[in-house]
Amino acid sequence: ARFGNRPDLTIILFTLDETVYSRELAPLAGHYPALKLGPAWWFHDSPEGMRRYREQVTETAGFYNTVGFNDDTRAFLSIPARHDVARRIDAGFLARLVAEHRLDRDDAFEVAHDLAYRLVKQAYKL
């Protein structure tokens, strides 16, 4: 607990086993401020994989214990398309929360901006 609560420490976790997000990682990220969850990446970089990630993580860890969406250069030319898909998946998830009256519309706009821009800048200190 000594390190997990340090305000000057950020640990970003990625996994290839998406079942670990809801079972182990989201509860840990919800408890330890230093722990952040990396996006649905590599084997989860499809619309359905991204949707499953958002559903598995948000209920327990919330939005602000994630780092938005980042990418690598292994498929350099597809980066804009993958970021567009990630933003659309997050927008759809937020729209559903607004339609279900679980999130205010203004808050959804703020979270959308955070997921697309601010969280990545904070996590990677850009």
TrEMBL record:
Entry keyword set: Isomerase
EC number: 5.3.1.12
InterPro entries listed in its UniProt record: Metal_Hydrolase, Uronate_isomerase
GO molecular function: glucuronate isomerase activity
Signal peptide positions on this chain: none
Top-level taxon: Bacteria
Pathways involved: Carbohydrate metabolism; pentose and glucuronate interconversion
Substrates-to-products reaction catalysed: D-glucuronate = D-fructuronate
GO BP field: D-galacturonate catabolic process; D-glucuronate catabolic process
Family: Belongs to the metallo-dependent hydrolases superfamily. Uronate isomerase family.
The name this protein goes by in its record: Uronate isomerase
Biological source species: Siculibacillus lacustris
